[in-house]
Structures are given as structure tokens and as C-alpha cells.
Amino acid sequence: MAILPIFIPHAGCPHQCVFCNQKTISGQKTAAESGAREQIARWLQWLRPSLSNEAAFYGGSFTALDSGLQERLLLLTDELRERGLIGSVRISTRPDYIDGEKLQLLRRHGVRVVELGVQSLDDKVLQAAGRGHTAADVVKAVELLRDYDFQIGLQLMVGMPLQSFDSLRQSIMQAVRLQPDLARIYPLLVIKDTPLAESWLKGDFQPLSLAEAIRQSAWAYDELTRNGIKVIRVGLQPDDELRAPGNILAGPFHPAMGELVQSFLLRERLTTQLLAVKGAGQIIIRCPYRQESKLRGSRNSNIEYWRQLLAPSQIIIEKADADEITVSAAAVNEKGRRR
To answer: In angstroms, rounded to a whole number, what is the distance separating the alpha carbons of residues 128 and 142?
Structure first.
């Protein structure tokens, strides 16, 4: 399956959220039909036809666009479907711009997934961020999308103004009760030319550290996935413009945020097992080849953490052709060899 992304930055959005500068995030400067055509043409140079492929409109609030522009953009993806290049379409929009008429239009044009920019389900946090909608709007939108048989995605943020860890936990638990099909988790960054950038420069807002953003995102990821909700991304997927010097002013940016979160969760899970054999001469962790990088953590951070925690036991990593990670203990003789 391949995703054909079409960015429509800030298009249709009636509000200026404090953290948002979509033109920088997406790297696209216009949201016109011609801009969408140009993007599609670029992607078609490598896209292999398949009904499992999906075109995705990102960046703007699609259902808040003028209805005529919505139709023209969807006619572009209709052509791709007719040619067998893609099988479906997904869009991203605001929860307060969902109604029956808009959803009928989406269904006529092969839209299968609707992702809602929810960010939080705490009304105080939503107000502080300038979102312009409430948690109740999210609930109504999810119910309506389910009535029209769409797959539902929720986009959630970590580290927003006035958002404590407890507020995040409450939002995630409310999201679980809504039972979307998928979710994204975005730690908040301070991006230039946004109201949040002004607050940060004045010292009125302090973003999360990378370590804290990983911890909170990991909790959210674990809670969602344990309840059957697929988390399809953690962290922004930036282009070259976003990563250019001076665009990200502050905040927990890392190009492999999802890997860091999964590595943190793996460390938390294995630590309990490792403590159970603390004191053994050697502790052997047998790890499938494909999981070794997550096991070790960024710059071997997990291994160093365990070595300090379990000293004087030796930590031995053995790569194995296996399906899961296992922990075992071995005694050693006076020469440090296994008995």
C-alpha cells in the first residue's frame, strides 16, 4: 500500500490555532487546485497502480473548504481511482465542520477515512489553543461519521498550553471510549510565525523536553493500542522546509519520534523482567534481529540504563531468529564464563 499525499495547507481552516503554521509544516505555499495537480503529477512518476493505494488530503480542514473546491479536488482523485492507481481517499478536517451533506459528498467520491483534528478533549486546553471547537463537537462528529460508515481517525497532541499529564490522560481515555479506528500523536513544537512562538519568546510558554514528550506520548500510545486503536504515527512527518534552520524554535522534535516511543515502552516492559533476575552473574536478552534497534534505544540508552540498574550483573545481548524478546539468567564462574 502506498499513500499519495496532497497538502492543502491551512485551507478551509476558519481559526488560527496558537501552534499552527501549516505552510511551514507541509512545505506547500498554496492550496489551489493547480497546486494539487502539481503534487499528484510528481507522485505519479513512481506510484505503482494498486487498489490498495490511497490518496490523502493533508494540512487543511477539507470539509471547511468551499464546496466547489472540495468537488474539484475530489474529481482529481476520482480520475486516479478510475485509472486504477488508487482505491480510496482520506481527508483531514475539523470536528465542527461535519454534517450529513458534507459526508454525502465525501462518500460519492470514494473517501474512506476521515481524520479529525481533535488535539485534546479538555475544553480548557482547546480554548487556550484557539481551536474554536469543544470536546462535545468531537463526540458529535464521531457519531455522525460512524452513522455514515467512515473509518475514523483522531489526531491528538501532547504538551499543549495548559495541558497537564493528567489532562492528557483524561483526553486519551475519552478518545478510547469513542473507539476510533486509528490515531496520530503529535508532541507540540514551537514553530516560527505562530502565536505560540510569541508566547515562547516572552517566556509565557515552555514546551516539553524530549524526554518528557517521549514519556507522555508512550503512555498515550500504549493506552490507545491496548484498547485496539491503531496508532499510525507519533510525531510530525516533516519535510525539508520544516527542518530548515530557524523554523522549529523549540520543543521535542526528533525525526524518529515513533521509534523513541516504542523503545521507551520496550524498556519499561523489560525492566520488570530484568529486575526479577537481578543478581545473576549474567543476564541474557535474546532479541529478534528486527527489534535490536528498539531494544538498544537511541545511542544504546536502554542498555546503559539496565547496566546501571542491574550492576554488577552483566547484560548480554544475543540476536536470535525468534518472534519475541526473552530474558534469562546464567551463573558465571570465577573467570566470568557461564557455568
So the answer is: 23
Compute and round to an integer the Cα radius of gyration of the chain.
23
47 and 18 part of one domain:
yes
Amino acid identity of residue 76, one-letter, is L
* pLDDT tens track for 263-300: 999 999 999 999 999 988 899 999 999 999 999 999 99
Q: Which of 212, 229, 255 is the last residue of a domain?
A: 255
Q: How do residues 295-309 score in pLDDT, each as one tens digit? A: 999 999 999 999 999
Instruction: Give the SS3 label for residue 248.
Output: strand
336 vs 205: CA distance, rounded Å: 53
pTM of the model: 0.89
Q: What is the span of the domain harbouring residue 276?
A: 272-330
Separation of alpha carbons 54 and 39, rounded Å: 14
Co-location of 161 and 19 in the same domain? yes
Using the 8-state DSSP alphabet, how is residue 163 labeled? -
